[in-house]
Design brief:
Length: 355
């Protein structure tokens, strides 16, 4: 019996399949299959874990590193350059000589004899074999400055390299570098995520402080559920008016609470904070009890808890703030690994009842 040949997927069926593909498989397909790019750009991208770091980012179990590498065209590649390329390359703008604007400004203030003196001192300091690559790198930088001053053609070219590492497996994509690292990196990220044209659903997002920028902050403020790992502050709530925010830990003083209460104005705003010990929860609660107009009562949510007390703070004629705590339940353990969870929610006036 003859075996039928596999049939290609049509556009609509491809979108359905694409929706459930691992994000990294989608990236690989979009880079290699031009016809798949249309589907990739149209379908929602689902990512389980995304970590944004200063020098790279991690999607699920794959680390992506973007950098500028040097490829020698006519001579063997120096060992120090090999090591730099292997580490992911340079992560800032350089000219065709591999020099940054800061390098050129610094050297423009020095004369040739000063450069030679710096090189001599470096040679004396890095005489031992372990420092040979460092000494070689300094030599190459001096040579690059010399070629630049004399408008000579360098024996190397630069490429923008995207390195994808999963365990011990490493894949590399390269494109020609146009002397603008930011624009080139934005192009690659846009090609991968396509964020301007489709939704990106991220279950767990972790951002290093050094990796934050204004554009990323705008995306964070639009997140449906923002989970902040590590110790945070209620001050963050003052600038991020997401409907749902969770803090793994909180470190605040009493003056922060009044500022926080002032931004709680929209019914449905819901905040939660993890606590490991009941004593620290009580101390946290006491700060809310001390706020002007705070009353004690019960709400539909707090009645279901082992700790039915609910603090009620009137916000306006139409809204109130309810604060209660409970032992972390199974549903909340998805994002909260502490023993207790404090919950703070803006409700319609009268939702909770004063005792």
């Amino acid at each position: 019996m003859a075996t039928s040949r596999p049939q290609p997927l049509f556009y609509q069926s491809s979108k359905c399949v694409d929706l459930y593909l691992d994000a990294n498989i989608r990236f690989q397909l979009s880079l290699r299959c031009p016809t798949f790019q249309t589907v990739h750009q149209a379908a929602t991208l689902r990512i389980h874990d995304l970590k944004m770091r200063p020098n790279d980012f991690v999607v699920n179990d794959t680390t992506f590193t973007l950098g500028v590498i040097q490829k020698y065209t006519t001579t063997p590649t120096p060992e120090s350059v090999k090591l730099l390329n292997a580490s992911g390359g340079i992560q800032y703008d350089v000219d065709r000589y591999g020099l940054s604007e800061e390098d050129c400004i610094r050297v423009s203030k020095l004369n040739d004899s000063t450069l030679k003196e710096e090189l001599y001192i470096a040679h004396r300091v890095f005489e031992r074999r372990i420092y040979d690559n460092k000494y070689e790198a300094i030599q190459l930088e001096c040579l690059a400055h010399h070629m630049r001053l004399n408008n000579q053609e360098p024996p190397y070219t630069h490429y923008l390299q995207l390195t994808m590492t999963t365990g011990t497996v490493q894949k590399v994509e390269r494109l020609e570098y146009d002397n603008n690292f930011k624009i080139s990196s934005d192009y690659i990220i846009e090609k991968m995520f396509g964020v301007a044209r489709k939704k990106v659903q991220i279950k767990n997002l972790q951002i290093d402080r050094e990796a934050l920028d204004l554009q990323l902050m705008r995306h964070i403020q639009n997140a449906e559920f923002l989970c902040v790992a590590g110790t945070g502050s209620l001050k963050v709530f003052n600038v991020n008016q997401n409907n749902r925010i969770h803090f793994a830990k909180c470190n605040d003083v009493e003056t922060d609470f009044a500022d926080f209460v002032n931004i709680c104005s929209k019914v449905g705003q819901f905040y939660s904070i993890g606590f490991q010990h009941q004593t620290t929860v009580e101390e946290f609660f006491e700060m809310f009890r001390n706020l002007p107009g705070a009353e004690t009562g019960k709400s539909d949510e707090s009645r279901l808890s082992q700790f039915p007390e609910c603090i009620i703070i009137s916000m306006s004629d139409e809204t109130e703030l309810n604060v209660w705590f409970e032992k972390t339940n199974e549903e909340d353990k998805v994002y909260c690994n502490t023993e207790f969870t404090v919950k703070i929610k803006v409700q319609n006036r009268g939702h909770a009842h004063v005792i």
